[in-house]
Design goal:
Elements: H1 2-38, H2 51-54, E1 64-66, E2 79-84, H3 90-98, E3 111-119, H4 125-138, E4 141-147, H5 153-167, E5 173-177, E6 181-183, H6 185-192, E7 201-206, E8 234-243, H7 245-253, H8 263-274, E9 279-280, E10 282-283, E11 288-289, E12 291-292, H9 300-304, E13 308-310, H10 314-324, H11 327-330
Parallel strand pairs: 2-3, 2-5, 3-4, 7-9, 12-13
Antiparallel strand pairs: 1-4, 5-8, 6-13, 7-8, 10-11
């Protein structure tokens, strides 16, 4: 019997040592990659941008067609969800209001919701009237007078930062999240407990991004626009969370950092200027990226262990949400 206990103890010790060894290797590899790619980052700019560059992303260049200036009045949201959509995305907005963006989703947790919209290239008066009516009904739409195009996503993101800095400074955290995302709100709220309240930003960090030089690429950047061979660490634009103070700081940084038409990389460039390092949201043993940027088919217990999963239609989100409500009791 004693020999069995001794063998069991030795096996347990080996198991613990193996786990420690794996953890040490993973951390070492992580630090190696992180240091490798942060060793040749672009220099931080030291001068204000020329006026014609800054004008592209300056809040003074645009006006509000629809606004919600009182959304955070007399309240202190734990989290503000900022969701970039187009005027035509009414189905996505409806699905989000019924699922992860619904009001009073969690008891005693104040979460605000804002859909951020540009102008449609269709110039359809009926579309604009419908958006105005929707805004009156739900009080959750902000629209500015720039064209809603892929090339203008950087403008939209910087206008989101400015809106938060001006109208919702009482919040604690902000999440920029796309409309085709499944968001596990209870997990996110738990995850944010005891996180830093200043200079904090987290999500799926990309540390090895490089500019595409092929003119046929959707993400083409010329050497004139971006001469460096490596991007600073940045967060996937599918969804990331940051402390509210960073909204104003990133807006300030945009006065020094030349805009590029890749909004997630541009935010990373502003963070690099601010000397703020994004935090990779992950777990170890088993390893999981909590801000999952790959598409997974829905499986309740898989989704219960992540904050976001990407690539779903409005109908998908509604159908998954109905089942997901039971995940806390069965996973």
């Amino acid at each position: 019997m004693a020999s069995v206990r001794r063998i069991w103890a030795e096996m347990s010790l080996r198991s613990r040592l193996l786990k420690c060894f794996v953890l040490a290797v993973v951390i070492a590899l992580f630090l190696h990659v992180y240091n490798k790619y942060s060793g040749s980052l672009p220099l931080k700019p030291s001068q204000l941008l020329p006026a014609d560059f800054y004008k592209q992303i300056s809040p003074l260049s645009y006006t509000y067609l629809v606004n919600q200036p009182d959304l955070c009045h007399n309240r202190k949201p734990l989290l503000v969800l900022m969701i970039p959509v187009t005027s035509q995305d009414s189905e996505s907005r409806a699905a989000i209001r019924k699922t992860w963006g619904q009001e009073n989703l969690l008891p005693n947790v104040d979460i605000a919701r804002v859909f951020f919209v540009g102008e449609s290239s269709q110039h359809d008066p009926k579309l604009q009237d419908n958006l105005q009516d929707e805004s009156l009904a739900y009080r959750d739409i902000v629209q500015m007078n720039f064209m809603d195009t892929y090339q203008n996503l950087t403008i939209k993101t910087m206008m989101i930062m400015n809106w938060v800095a001006v109208y919702c400074r009482s919040a604690r955290y902000v999440m920029k999240i796309d409309a085709d995302i499944f968001l596990n709100v209870p997990y996110l709220v738990d995850y944010l407990q005891n996180k830093p309240k200043h200079n904090y930003i987290t999500g799926s960090v990309i540390s090895d991004g490089r500019p595409r030089r092929n003119p046929n690429s959707k993400w083409y950047l010329s050497n004139d626009v971006y001469p460096e061979s490596l991007f600073p660490p940045y967060l996937s634009g599918a969804g990331y969370v940051f402390s509210v103070d960073l909204a104003k700081k990133i807006s300030m940084a945009s006065k020094f950092v030349r805009p590029i038409p890749m909004e997630d990389v541009y935010v990373g460039m502003c963070l690099h200027f601010l000397q703020v390092r994004p935090e990779f949201a992950w777990t170890l043993l088993p390893y999981m990226n909590l801000f999952e940027i790959r598409h997974f088919n829905y499986e309740r217990c898989t989704f219960a262990k992540r904050i976001i999963v990407t690539g779903f239609s409005p109908t998908d989100i509604i159908n998954m949400w109905a089942d997901f409500q039971g995940s806390g009791f069965s996973c």
